[in-house]
């Protein structure tokens, strides 16, 4: 998966399409975006919205990431 590609993030029965970008600004408000932090970690988020609330996961839960 490279910058500009989309992938799926899944937790339980919930599945969402995510854009691999570089900043929150790569997507409109409420949309899903992922990018690598300065520490090299993959951050999956939503622009001005809560990814955690929508997925229903908590810290330590495992999520599934798959190619679209």
- Which spans have pLDDT < 50 for at least 5 consecutive residues? none
Largest sheet: 5 strands, mixed
Helical coverage, percent range: under 10%
Question: What value does the average pLDDT take?
Answer: 95
Spatially, the strands of the biggest sheet line up as 4-3-2-1-5
Number of strands: 5
The succession of helices and strands, N to C, reads EEEEHE
Distance between the termini: 10 Å
What is the radius of gyration computed over CA atoms, rounded to a whole number of angstroms?
A: 11 Å
Number of alpha- plus pi-helical segments: 1
| Shape estimate | globular
Tell me the quaternary state. single chain
Report the sheet-strand fraction.
35-45%
Structural class: mainly beta
